[in-house]
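Title: Comparing notes on inverse folding

I've been comparing how different people in this forum approach sequence design from structure. To keep things fair, I'm posting one structure and asking everyone to reply with a full sequence. Here's the target:
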C-alpha cells in the first residue's frame, strides 16, 4: 500500500540535511577537532608533530570531502538548498551549539589563555604545546595562543575558501576574490609576520591597516618600529601610506570591496567559513539605523583613542624635534575640521538628516573635549589616560565585539556582524564609498522578477531587491562588494561596476525599469514642476 502524502506544501518535503558521504566527512573532521580537544585536556601525545599533522589533516580532509560531495556532482551554480531547513543554518539547535562553542573558545583565547596551556615561565602545555613544533618551524619561537589562533584562522579560510570556490565556481568574480583573500591571509596575515619574528623584527601584517589595526600607533608598537632600524621605519611609513594614500585611491576607484572582500582577514573568514550563514543578516530598517550609529560611534572611539595614545607617547618621548605633542594635537584637530568642513560644504545634500546631526554632534564633542582638557592643562587629553583608553578599546571592541560577537555569533546574527556594526575600517571606507567613489551596483530593473534572492543573501542586510525593482543604483556605505547578490540573481539584473561619478546616485529612476523614454518624460516633468 502506498504511504499517504501528508505534506501539503507545493514545494514538497524539506531537502535531506546531508548525504552519507557528507556525514562521514563531518565525522573525519570532528575526529581531527577531537585531537585538539584532547590536547586541551592535557593528554600527552607521544609525538606532537605527528598528532598536529593528523589533526589539521583530518579537518582539511573532512572539509574537502564534504565540499566535493556537496558541489562537484551537481551542475555549477549557486547551491543554497535547504538553508532555512537545516538546524545549523536556521538558528536551530546546532547553530546554538556552534555559536556557544565558538564564543567559549574566544573567551578563553582572549582572557584565560592559561587554560589553553600558555605558560609564561617554562614549557607550554595543552593545545599550545601541540602547535609548538609548527611555530618553531616558521618563527623559531614556541607557540602562543595567538599562533594557535592564527593557524586555525588561516586554515579555516583556506579550507572553507576551497568549499566556497566549488559552490560559486560558475562565477569568476567570486573565484578570484576568494583566491585573493586566501593569499592575503596565508601570506600577509600569517606567514610574513611570523617570519619577521624569526629575524627579530617587529610583528607586522602589511594588510592590517589602521583603524582596524588599532595598535599601530600604540606606544609599544611605535617604539618597536623606531628601534628596528630601516626595516622598522619602512613598516611605519608603509602603514602611514596605507592609511592616507593607498586606501583612499583604491576606494575611490573600486569602492570598499578592494579591502573588505579581497584583502581583509575578517572579511575573508566571513566570506568563506561564514558563507552558510549570510542569509541570517537582519534586513530591517531598525537594524540599518542601529548599524549606522554603532559603527560610526566605534570609529569616533578609535579616533579619540588613537589621538590620546599618540599624545601620551609624544609626552613620554619628547625627543621628536619639531613634532611635539601640541603640534600633533592641533594638526589632528585641524585635519578633522578640514574633513568635516569638506563633507559639509560639498556633500551635505547626500547625507540624511540624522547623518548630518550625528556628524555635527560627534565633531562638536571631540573638539570641545580637546579644548577643555588642553586649556585646563590636563595632560589626559580625553579625560582618561591614553593607555587606559587603549586598554578599554582593546577589551570592548578589539576582543569582545570583533571576536566574541563578530565570529562567535555567525550562526545567530549572520557572518558580517563585525564588518557591519563594529569595524571602524569599514566605517571609513564606507563613508568614502558613499561620498567619493566610482563604485556602484547597477540594476536592470526591467528584468527583476522580485524573487528576493539578492536581499536574502546580502550579508550586509541591504534590501537589494528594493533598489532592483526601481532600477536604482545601489550606493550604500555598508556594501562590501561581495557580489553575491549578483551571483544569486536568476535574471542577471545586478552588476558591480566602477564608472563615472556622474549620476551615480539615481534615486529618481523609480518604478520605470530603466526605460529611457519614460525617464525623459520624468525629467521633463520635474523641470516643469520646478518652473
Ligand atoms: S549589496 Fe550585494 S555586493 Fe553589496 S554587500 Fe550586499 S550582497 Fe554583497
Ligand atoms: S535576485 Fe534578481 S530578480 Fe530576484 S529580486 Fe533580486 S534583482 Fe530581482
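Reply #1:
Here's my take.
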Amino acid at each position: 500500500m502506498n504511504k499517504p502524502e501528508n505534506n501539503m506544501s507545493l514545494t514538497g518535503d524539506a531537502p535531506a540535511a546531508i548525504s552519507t558521504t557528507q556525514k562521514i566527512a563531518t565525522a573525519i573532521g570532528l575526529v581531527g577537532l577531537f585531537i585538539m580537544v584532547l590536547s586541551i585536556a592535557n593528554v600527552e601525545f607521544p609525538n606532537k608533530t605527528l598528532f598536529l599533522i593528523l589533526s589539521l589533516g583530518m579537518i582539511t580532509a573532512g572539509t574537502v570531502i564534504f565540499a566535493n560531495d556537496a558541489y562537484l556532482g551537481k551542475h555549477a551554480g549557486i547551491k543554497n538548498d535547504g538553508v532555512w531547513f537545516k538546524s545549523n543554518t536556521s538558528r536551530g539547535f546546532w547553530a546554538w551549539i556552534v555559536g556557544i562553542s565558538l564564543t567559549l573558545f574566544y573567551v578563553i583565547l582572549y582572557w584565560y589563555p592559561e587554560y589553553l596551556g600558555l605558560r609564561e615561565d617554562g614549557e607550554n602545555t595543552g593545545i599550545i604545546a601541540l602547535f609548538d613544533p609548527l611555530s618553531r618551524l616558521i618563527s623559531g619561537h614556541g607557540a602562543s595562543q595567538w599562533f594557535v589562533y592564527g593557524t586555525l584562522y588561516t586554515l579555516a579560510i583556506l579550507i572553507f575558501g576551497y568549499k566556497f570556490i566549488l559552490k560559486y565556481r560558475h562565477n569568476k568574480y567570486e573565484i578570484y576574490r576568494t583566491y585573493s583573500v586566501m593569499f592575503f591571509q596565508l601570506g600577509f596575515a600569517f606567514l610574513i609576520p611570523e617570519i619577521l619574528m624569526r629575524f627579530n623584527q617587529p610583528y607586522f601584517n602589511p594588510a592590517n591597516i589602521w583603524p582596524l589595526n588599532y595598535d599601530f600607533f600604540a606606544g609599544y608598537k611605535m617604539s618597536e618600529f623606531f628601534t628596528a632600524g630601516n626595516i622598522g621605519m619602512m613598516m611605519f611609513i608603509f602603514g602611514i601610506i596605507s592609511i592616507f594614500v593607498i586606501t583612499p585611491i583604491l576606494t575611490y576607484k573600486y569602492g570598499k570591496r578592494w579591502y573588505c572582500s579581497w584583502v581583509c582577514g575578517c572579511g575573508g573568514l566571513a566570506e568563506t567559513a561564514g558563507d552558510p550563514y549570510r542569509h541570517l543578516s537582519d534586513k530591517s530598517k531598525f537594524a540599518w539605523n542601529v548599524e549606522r550609529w554603532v559603527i560610526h560611534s566605534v570609529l569616533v572611539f578609535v579616533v579619540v583613542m588613537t589621538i590620546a595614545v599618540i599624545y601620551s607617547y609624544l609626552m613620554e618621548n619628547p625627543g621628536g624635534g619639531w613634532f611635539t605633542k601640541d603640534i600633533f594635537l592641533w594638526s589632528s584637530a585641524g585635519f578633522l575640521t578640514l574633513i568635516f568642513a569638506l563633507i559639509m560644504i560639498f556633500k551635505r545634500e547626500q547625507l540624511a538628516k540624522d547623518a548630518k546631526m550625528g556628524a555635527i554632534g560627534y565633531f562638536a564633542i571631540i573638539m570641545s573635549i580637546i579644548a577643555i582638557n588642553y586649556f585646563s592643562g590636563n595632560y589626559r587629553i580625553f579625560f582618561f589616560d591614553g593607555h587606559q583608553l587603549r586598554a578599554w578599546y582593546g577589551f570592548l571592541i578589539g576582543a569582545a565585539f570583533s571576536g566574541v560577537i563578530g565570529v562567535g555569533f555567525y550562526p545567530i546574527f549572520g557572518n558580517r556582524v563585525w564588518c557591519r556594526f563594529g569595524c571602524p575600517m569599514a566605517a571609513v571606507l564606507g563613508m568614502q564609498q558613499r561620498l567619493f567613489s566610482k563604485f556602484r551596483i547597477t540594476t536592470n530593473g526591467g528584468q527583476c522578477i522580485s524573487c528576493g534572492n539578492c536581499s536574502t543573501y546580502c550579508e550586509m542586510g541591504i534590501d537589494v531587491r528594493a533598489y532592483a525593482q526601481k532600477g536604482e543604483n545601489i550606493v550604500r556605505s555598508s556594501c562590501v562588494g561581495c557580489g553575491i547578490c549578483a551571483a544569486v540573481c536568476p535574471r542577471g539584473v545586478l552588476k558591480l561596476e566602477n564608472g563615472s561619478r556622474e549620476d551615480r546616485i539615481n534615486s529618481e529612476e523609480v518604478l520605470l525599469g530603466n526605460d529611457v523614454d519614460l525617464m525623459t518624460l520624468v525629467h521633463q516633468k520635474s523641470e516643469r514642476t520646478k518652473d
